[in-house]
Amino acid sequence: MRHYSLKMFGAAILLLAMTAVGWKALDAGLYVSATLAFLFDVGLIVFIYRLQINLMGTLKYLISCIRYNDTEHIPLPAYRNRLVQELATELSDTFEALKLRISEENTRLKYYEQLLNQVNLPVVVTDRQANIEWRNRAATKAFGNDAKLPEAWLAAPDKRTKAVQLTRHGQTIEMAMTADTFTVGTRDLWLLSFKDIGDMLEQNELEAQQKLIRVLTHEVMNSLSPILSLTETMTEYCTAQTAETAEADTMRQALQTIHRRSEGLMQFVENYRRLTRLPSPVIAPIQVDDLLADLKQLFPAAYVRFHASPRGATVMADRSQLEQALINLMKNACEAVEGQPEAKVQLTFQRLAGDGDHFYVEDNGPGLRPEVAEQVFVPFFTTKPGGSGIGLSLCKQIARLHGGNIRLQSSEGIGTRVDFLLPPGPKTH
Question: Which CATH architecture does the domain made up of 120-196 adopt?
Answer without folding.
Answer: 2-Layer Sandwich (3.30)
